[in-house]
Design a protein that fits this description.
By secondary structure, the chain is of the alpha/beta class. It has 8 helices and 11 strands. It has a single domain, classed as Rossmann fold (3-Layer(aba) Sandwich), CATH 3.40.50. The N and C termini lie far apart (71 Å).
């Protein structure tokens, strides 16, 4: 079977990416206790495939899922390969989650099968920090191949599952991914950083869970949600003052 022009072009591009043999960590914590403490490995494995989908087909949730993926990639070492079927990534938005345009290598495929093939190719290159693909459908066999390539290359693979045109759950089909996530936006008033509902639908050797976190900052990091009572308590500890009667009543 002849090699696709997209695959040939990607191989040519990757040949020009130097490999400086940087040492790699196996797990990357999110830095949010409610998430890390419930993950089997204490964070996201960087030698595995992870799937991410929007909680709903809304544009807000789709943007949240995309920025969640960008934040993970931003914290991985090295250039990032992002494979799409249509080049519609908005670089300034990705930069809000810490992923600078100069780090991203773009590749475009004709269909979902082509996206997955280009992901596998990228995962074979030792210099990439992360490989991202956007698909509507991926068979269990296809995700198994991507998972195996990620494990061999010790590079994190992130599969952004877009909703099918006819609707339905993007995560309905079984997968070999180590984790499967749903990301939704939490309605807020004001100009503070958005909050996300981060739901782990499945993980290997662990239970599903849900947590609320503050959206990625410009370094790609999530932040824990701190309640007003926790803020007051922290201030009291810093200033070494005795809690007020109101605070004592709340804590009781």
């Amino acid at each position: 079977m002849p090699e696709s022009s997209a695959l040939s072009s990607l191989r040519e591009t990757l040949r020009a990416v130097p490999d400086d043999r940087h040492s790699r960590r196996r797990v990357m914590p999110f830095g949010v206790l409610d998430i890390d403490s419930q993950l089997t490995d204490g964070g996201l494995r960087l030698d595995a495939l992870h799937e991410v989908a929007a909680a709903t087909p809304s544009l807000r949730d789709d943007a949240a899922a995309t920025l969640f993926v960008a934040g993970v990639a931003a914290r991985a070492w090295g250039p990032i390969l992002w494979v799409v079927r249509r080049r519609d990534l908005f670089a300034p938005a990705l930069a809000q989650s810490g992923l600078m345009a100069k780090r991203v290598i773009h590749a475009e495929a004709e269909d979902d099968a082509g996206v997955l093939a280009l992901m596998e190719e990228g995962l074979r290159h030792p210099a990439l920090g992360a490989v991202i693909g956007e698909v509507r459908r991926a068979s269990p066999a296809a995700t198994k191949h991507v998972q195996q390539a990620a494990a061999r290359g010790r590079t994190v693979a992130l599969l952004l599952k877009r909703p099918a045109r006819e609707g339905g759950d993007p995560l309905a089909v079984s997968s070999s991914a180590a984790t499967r996530w749903r990301i939704g936006s939490v309605p807020m008033v004001g100009t503070a950083r958005p909050r996300w509902e981060v739901t782990l639908a499945r993980q290997s050797d662990g239970a599903p869970f849900a947590a609320t976190a503050i959206a990625c900052d410009d370094t790609g990091r999530l932040a824990p949600v701190v309640t007003r009572r926790e803020q007051r308590r922290a201030v009291s500890e810093i200033l070494r003052v005795t809690p007020t009667a109101e605070e004592q009543a709340e804590a009781a």
